[in-house]
Amino acid sequence: MPAVKKHRIVDAITLDSIMSKLSDSKRTDGRGLLDYREIEIETNILKDKTNGSAKVKIGDTEVWAGIKVETAHPFPDTPAEGVMTCNAEMLPISSQYVEPGPPDEDTIELSRVSDRGIRESGMIDVSELCIKEGELVYSVYIDVAVINEDGNLFDAVAYAGTAALLEADKSKFTIENDEVKMLEEREKLPIKSLPISTTFAKIGDKIIIDPNADEQEIASARLTLVTDENGKYVSAQKGKPGGFTFEELKELSVISKEKGEEIRKMIKEAVNNGA
Amino acid sequence: MSENNIERISGRAPDELRNVSIKAGVIKNADGSALIEFGKNKIIAAVFGPKEVHPKHMMVSNRAIIKCRYHMMPFSTDTRKRPNLSRREIEISKVIREAVQPAILMENYPRTAIEIYVEILQSDGGSRCAAINAASTALADAGINMRDLVAACAAGKVNGQVVLDVDDQEDKTGEADMPIAMLPNKDLITLFQLDGNLSKEEFDRALELAKIGCNKLYNLQKDALSEKYFNENNKKEDEE
């Protein structure tokens, strides 16, 4: 239950320039308050061992996602449903502040929030991942590695995970004489939706989108909102020890939808180009 | 509320809370504590501190640090829970800490630690909200300087209807759960989570409902504290 740990250090000059720019509603890298950095999405980058993969860059933040589709026993309470898990990992190469070892609470939060976004949106139809009820189902593992950290990991991990899923495939199967046989032939995963995560940070009384590492560190509060293509809100998480007012939440929920539309197009385009 | 309400499993109205009772000062050895019964939830929060920071390198020179552990007892769930902290409990410990921290005047206690322990003895839906209400009451009971109490309550969607305070049964069949914590005086939301499926209208409606719920919890916390500190009968017992 660490309350203080090795934190990124934002020097006084950087802090000053961020704050003085923000007072004019500007940012140190020339962005407006509600502009994302350049987003690069590339799929199918690890062809030989994964069943789907993607690389996402948001500015200098870089994450890689790999999908593995294997078979497993279903959970006893959902005998006819496949299994999916999304996991995020901070590699020690990603930042001088990350050390090897078991995940800290920030990484656990990152993993669980990305998992919820995909799960709650019903992106993967788990009922179509059943092979033999009560005995065998597909299990989809989404593993996302943070290669270089410059803020807004929540969005980067979500985009990489979903882009890789869109492109992923699994082996077909037949059942002969009550025996399951996995085939060489492959088919796409049963994808029903494309959830998009948008992350905001509050510094003083200003709210910005897509915070970089310095902005994220000095922010009092963070908000991640996930929307699906029907304009529904499927998941949310407030982070950091500060807060938002009701008016701010209502305002951000509208912006989240608009930005989500733009980014959804980018991901779909990237997947079409990569496939 | 509108007339075409859909009956809830528990028979509650859409804007009706479960039965809640809060009692401050239930653990003698703690500096502050509270027991909350929130539906079937039975939760004790205890606060220790301000005390010496351990390990020492975690000390901050100009303010206190807050530590929080949310822990479920193995017998608190339908099937036995393994006693060690799960990833879920680690995440909830973090969000509870971040929800109460804005209320604490940490700068009044430099170089110290304030520890919050939340023990779930019996769990129902909405245990993180119940835990925040208990933790906030326990902090006040410990005499920690605070800007405000922190009140928490969830809203959600069950059978297509936006409702207040989703319980365990409703959470399993429901379409959305949105736990919220706030500092009612400052109108500041310090815990905000959502999973499920809400339209913009439902999202706004759920926010409004949760706010009403938080205000009710705020009053219950204040009642619990006055009951301990201002009730004449309690005072007499103390003197005896």
TrEMBL record, chain B:
InterPro entries: ExoRNase_PH_dom1 (IPR001247), ExoRNase_PH_dom2 (IPR015847), ExoRNase_PH_dom2_sf (IPR036345), PNPase/RNase_PH_dom_sf (IPR027408), Ribosomal_Su5_D2-typ_SF (IPR020568), RNase_PH (IPR050080), Rrp41 (IPR011807). GO terms for biological process: gene expression; nuclear-transcribed mRNA catabolic process; rRNA catabolic process. GO terms for cellular component: cytoplasmic exosome (RNase complex). Its main location: cytoplasm. GO terms for molecular function: 3'-5'-RNA exonuclease activity; RNA binding. Residues 16-144, 148-211 form the Exoribonuclease phosphorolytic domain. Component of the archaeal exosome complex. Forms a hexameric ring-like arrangement composed of 3 Rrp41-Rrp42 heterodimers. The hexameric ring associates with a trimer of Rrp4 and/or Csl4 subunits. HAMAP family: Exosome_Rrp41. This is Exosome complex component Rrp41. It comes from uncultured marine thaumarchaeote KM3_86_F11. The lineage of its organism: Archaea, Nitrososphaerota, environmental samples.
